[in-house]
């Protein structure tokens, strides 16, 4: 008698999912649909988000999802692609929606570009400006000196006729030292006593140094720096605190005239003294307070 074949237990056919797994997926789908129906979306906030994101990437349309000029956005509104947001025009009416500050009202606080610029500008003491102008007017009557007001303070230029250095030399000519000391004691001492910072810069023409000078100063920048240092030492000999004055050399790199002419080269060989407003200099050189004695 033939053996009866065992029948396989009932179950899913090959390629079919188990019934329990299918039921679980169905329940999860139902659960998420239920959550979606119960959720409460703020449509206005979503539109503001898409507009802000689109504006930052140069994309127009209420959804902020434009692709090309005249293309289609997510919404029915025509989308535009620009070259990017313009800083002045965009920031002038930069809006930020804040539900935490004004919950439920949708009020929009506005920050304008002009307000930001006011906070970034340096406000110089008007009394200092008037004092610098008075000193500038006094110096304009002196031979070999030029003075002018700049955004950072009072700039005094010692022309070649005032401090005519020898070719390739950094030593101040003997005639310039007493004239410089007179200018410091008569015109600049009130500003020095009030703690205004002083920066001395040296400038040259573009004629390369000779072998002897280049061995000592390397190049025109080194020569200009040493000339500025020698002017600085005159200030220090007059009692200016070393931390209140500094020196630098630009060499031929900041000309004010054409170096191809003799007259232009003479104008470029100069020393500039900048007395800076405290608003631009005070943190740079003020001596820190002494540590308390143990």
Brief summary of the model shown:
This protein has helices at 19-38, 43-56, 87-91, 113-120, 126-139, 176-193, 211-217, 220-237, 262-268, 278-285; strands at 94-95, 110-111, 145-149, 153-158, 198-203, 245-251, 270-276. It is of the alpha+beta class. It folds into two domains: 28-120, no CATH class; 126-285, 60s Ribosomal Protein L30, Chain: A.
What does this protein structure show overall?
It is a single chain. The protein is of the alpha+beta class. The protein folds into two domains: 28-120, no CATH class; 126-285, 60s Ribosomal Protein L30, Chain: A, CATH 3.30.1330.60. 40% of the residues lie in helices and 12% in strands. It has ten helices and seven strands. The strands form two sheets. Strands 3-4-7-5-6 form a five-stranded mixed β-sheet. It has a two-stranded antiparallel ribbon with strand order 1-2. Strand 3 and strand 4 (153-158) form a beta hairpin. The longest helix is centred in the N-terminal third of the chain and has 20 residues, at 19-38. It is elongated and about 130 Å long. The model is unreliable at 62-69 and 73-119 (pLDDT under 50).
What are the segments in which pLDDT stays under 50 over at least 5 consecutive residues? 62-69, 73-119
Spatial ordering of strands, largest sheet: 3-4-7-5-6
Q: How many domains would you count in the coordinates?
A: 2
CATH topology of the largest domain: 60s Ribosomal Protein L30, Chain: A
The CATH homologous superfamily of the largest domain is termed OmpA-like domain
The fraction of residues in strands falls at 5-15%
Rg: 38 Å
Estimated structural class: alpha+beta
Q: What's the β-strand tally?
A: 7
Number of helices: 10
Characterize the main sheet.
5 strands, mixed
The first-to-last residue Cα distance is: 113 Å
Order of helices and strands: HHHEEHHEEHEHHEHEH
What would the principal axes of the Cα set say about the shape?
elongated
What is the CATH class designation of the largest domain? Alpha Beta
Q: Give average pLDDT, whole number.
A: 75
Helix content: 40-55%
CATH architectural type of the largest domain: 2-Layer Sandwich
């Amino acid at each position: 008698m033939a053996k009866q074949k065992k029948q396989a237990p009932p179950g899913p056919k090959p390629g079919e999912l188990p019934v329990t797994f299918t039921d679980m997926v169905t329940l999860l789908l139902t659960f998420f649909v239920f959550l979606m129906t119960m959720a409460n979306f703020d449509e206005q906030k979503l539109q503001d988000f898409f507009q802000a994101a689109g504006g930052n990437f140069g994309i127009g349309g209420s959804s902020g999802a434009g692709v090309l000029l005249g293309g289609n956005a997510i919404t029915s509104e025509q989308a535009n692609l620009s070259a990017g947001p313009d800083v002045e025009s965009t920031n002038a009416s930069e809006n930020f929606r804040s539900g935490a500050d004004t919950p439920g009202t949708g009020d929009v606080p506005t920050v304008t570009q002009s307000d930001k610029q006011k906070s970034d500008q340096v406000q110089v003491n008007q009394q200092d400006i008037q004092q610098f102008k008075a000193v500038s007017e006094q110096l304009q009557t002196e031979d070999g000196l030029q003075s002018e007001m700049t955004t950072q303070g009072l700039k005094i230029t010692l022309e070649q006729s005032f401090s005519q250095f020898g070719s390739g030399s950094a030593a101040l000519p003997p005639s310039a030292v007493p004239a410089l000391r007179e200018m410091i004691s008569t015109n600049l001492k009130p500003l020095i006593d009030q703690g205004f910072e002083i920066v001395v810069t040296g400038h040259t023409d573009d004629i390369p140094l000779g072998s002897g000078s280049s061995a000592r100063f390397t190049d025109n920048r080194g020569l200009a720096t040493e000339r500025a240092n020698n002017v600085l030492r005159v200030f220090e000999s007059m009692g200016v605190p070393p931390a209140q004055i500094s020196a630098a050399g630009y060499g031929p790199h900041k000309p004010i005239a054409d170096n191809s002419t003799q007259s232009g080269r003479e104008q470029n060989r100069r020393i500039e003294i900048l007395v800076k407003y405290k608003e631009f200099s005070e943190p740079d050189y003020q001596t820190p307070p002494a540590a308390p004695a143990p």
